[in-house]
Amino acid sequence: MVVLQLQFLLVPLLASIMGAAQYMMQDAALMNYIDRRLLSLEKRLEKCNQDILDYVEEFRDFSKMVLSRLAGLNNYKAEVKSEVENLQTRIERAQRDIDYFGSVTDSHACIEVHEDLVKQQLFEEAEEKKKLKLMLNASCDHMLTGIKSLKIVKKTGDKHGSWMKDPGKKHTKIYLLNGSVNNVILEFADIMTFTESNHTLRARRVTLPFPWEGTGHIIYQGFLFYHRYGSLNEIIKFNIQKRNITDQMLLPGAGRIPAYQLSPSTKIDLAVDEQGLWAIHAEPDTGGNIVITKINHITMAVEHTWDTSCSSKDAEAAFMACSTLYVVYNSPSGGTSRIRCIYDILDAVNTQEIPVLHFPKRHGSHSSIHYNPKEMQLFAWGDGSQIIYKLHTKQKV
Known about the structure:
- It is a single chain.
- The chain folds into two domains: 1-104; 140-395, Neuraminidase (6 Propeller).
- Residues 106-113 have low confidence and may be disordered.
- The chain has three helices and 20 strands.
- The protein has helices spanning 2-105, 107-135, 191-195, and strands spanning 142-155, 161-164, 174-178, 181-188, 204-213, 218-220, 223-227, 234-239, 244-250, 269-273, 276-282, 289-296, 301-311, 315-321, 324-329, 338-344, 357-358, 368-372, 377-382, 385-395.
- The chain is 35% helix and 35% strand.
């Protein structure tokens, strides 16, 4: 009986001892696995550290070698630069010596050649002036010295426009061209008809095939010469009586900028004086200065062009009188108009002696000013008013 009781007690004890031994063996295997993994990682880290040290050392050696090579190149560059500068100095010295000896041995020949060139240039300039005088009417010898009176004939139309007589015809007709873009001319029998209150009913209407641009048109010898709207620099010659286009031309260099800064709608201003038909415009190539061109009104060919010293800045209008350009200036807000730049193509006018010429009793601006050589008056359009200015002149020096 006692033996059976001991047997029952030993069986559980042995089972528990065997289970504990089994757990101990599993823990030992786990510890062994962890130890081996750590050892492997430690070896890898040690190799990585060594590789980094090797890379750092290699980079340092390479940097020392590169810096050494660069230092050598800089020294070589400095030596070469010094040699080049030395050679350049010697060449310049030799060139100065050669120039000196050449000037000493050939001084008389050089002076003679220089004088010949000057004489040739003076001769060519004199011949050019002779040709210009032959082309122009040499009998035109007066110059403007003052604007002595004005008369406001009528106030009609827009702020911008032109009105004029035809100086090439004996009739007394008045022409009104209203607006900076339009295609209808109003023709009146005389100035009395024009001043009537119902003047538009008494006017003959002439419709153009193409509208004009700006206010720089002119009527001469029965033809209207105008800048065609929408074109860069096309000038049309229109027969007023027959109502058809008889000719046209392109004016070189014109149309890119306004002829006058204060009249931006006018790119080409056509004018008439004792010499015939002219074109006034400005070009960017001349710094905005005004250019004048003589045009043959019959053939519509350019005869000559002059670059003037008159600026288009703050200019509102200009006109030609006796082959001389008179430019009218004002302030952007409007004020007293005055002529303060004159250009005579034959150099017969001493522009330094001419004072600034003011327009009398005018505090506004001009849209257009046209000179009538037959009556020696200015037909101007100012703020919708049609004005006549009488001129004071004297003989050119």
